[in-house]
Amino acid sequence: MPIKVGAGMKGEQQQDYNRDIGERPFKYSAADRALGVEMSQAASVASAAAEFITGDRRGRGAEPPGRSYLKRTADRSAFLVLREGNADRSLQRDESGSFPAGPCLIRSEEWLQTPELGGLYECWLNSEDALQAERSLQRIYYRLRAASAALLESADRIWAAVTLLHTPELAARPAKLAELQDVQLEALFAAVAANQRLGSDSRIDLLAAYPASVAEFAAQREFIEDVAEQTLGHAYAAACSIGALIAPGVPPAAAGEIARIADFLVLDSAADLAAPEESAAADFVLAAEAALAAVRRVKPAAVVLAAGPAAAGALADLYRIGMSGIFCSAGQRTEALLRAACLTWIARQDSSTDTAAEGWL
CB under 8 Å, gap of 24 or more: what pairs does 30-36 form? Predict the structure, then answer.
């Protein structure tokens, strides 16, 4: 069975070290490919828009070591349109040699919705017999390891961001929640270790689920790092990017403090599904703008993305306020890429016009 590990605050020096290593904005490496392939596969819509407008074809280049989250342009960062979800993805890795601009967001709760895991989870959650619960948890571990292995054999193996398990029924049972998350991390890192022994190059980032304060996030980060170090060693634990999945209701000041020690943030509109659909996008933009302003005050270069059903619908407003990008489903991604490309083109045209006008002054 997985080893239980506790969560506690590490020293300031260790946190600074992890942040120095982990602060790697998403970066995009362009490849020499046709426009249709570029728009469907490239998450860097700024580069896609440039190729759409100018027809420029850049040669394939070697990706520098240390893939990072964002490629910066002269005026502003590229706006990323990244994939979310297990569905509608290729089973085979793209062998083109290029790296994505950012990860695919994997909500681990989707794994619990499968018939095999769902039944085991319900049995473990409701069991009053300690031995039966232990056996169910052990079976959950093996199922989660199989799901992790399947992820690492898919096209998303090259870069994925996986959320820590967080279910409504466990929100009020922190000991049970920590037990399930420990099993999840042990299974995920064991699959990564097996993959590494085969010589595979893959990157798995982790997202702490819905911390309400910097203390909660620091504890979750420590927890992740401890399990990673026990399973994969200190080097992997230090290099692993750990972000925070933030609910819109988190106070902006708390979001700013979390950003100090998080490698990236994801504002999740799915955390507030009770809001009416017609007002969800507008309310989410207001919450995102307040949170983003607080984050930028303490960490100007922070990577802050949006996810959930309201993100794609509010793309124009999220671009306007300066978000780094969005995660969206496969069904939303084509439209989102085109809209983001248009917004990027308009912004560049406005910038060119302003620069030309300044030249006459």
Answer: 30/58, 30/61, 30/98, 31/60, 31/96, 31/97, 31/98, 32/57, 32/58, 32/59, 32/60, 33/96
| Interatomic CA distance for residues 109 and 138, integer angstroms | 18
- The DSSP line for 152-200 is HTSGGGGSEEEEPP--GGGTT-HHHHHHHHHHHHHHHHHHHHHHHHTT-
Quote the DSSP letter at residue 56. -
Per-residue pLDDT of the chain (361 residues; tens, 9 = 90+): 544 444 444 444 444 444 444 444 444 344 333 333 344 444 444 444 444 433 333 433 334 334 455 544 334 557 899 999 875 454 444 444 555 678 899 999 999 999 889 999 999 999 989 999 999 999 999 999 999 998 888 766 678 899 999 988 898 899 999 999 999 999 999 998 888 888 777 788 999 999 999 999 999 999 999 999 988 888 777 778 999 999 999 999 999 999 999 999 999 998 776 555 667 888 999 999 999 999 999 999 999 999 988 888 899 999 999 999 999 988 888 888 888 888 888 887 776 655 544 544 4
Q: Are the C-beta atoms of residues 145 and 80 closer than 8 Å to each other?
A: no
- Residue 318 to residue 290: CA distance in whole angstroms: 12
CA distance 30 to 204: 22
d(CA 102, CA 80): 8
The crossing angle, in degrees rounded to 10, of helices 277-298 and 252-261 is: 50
Q: Residue 268: left (phi > 0), alpha (psi -120 to 50), or beta?
A: beta
Nearest to 165 by CA among 149, 186, 141, 184: 184
- b/e map 158-188, b = 16+ CB within 10 Å: bbbbbbbbbbeebeeeeebbbbbbbbbbbbb
Place of tokens 């124009």: 316
The partner residues of 106 in beta bridges, in order of sequence, read 162
- Distance, in Å, from the CA atom of 265 to the CA atom of 302, rounded to the nearest integer, reads 8
CB atoms closer than 10 angstroms to residue 24 = 17
Cα separation values, 283 from 23, 104, 134, 325, 345, Å? 29, 25, 43, 18, 27
Q: Tell me if the pTM is above 0.70.
A: yes
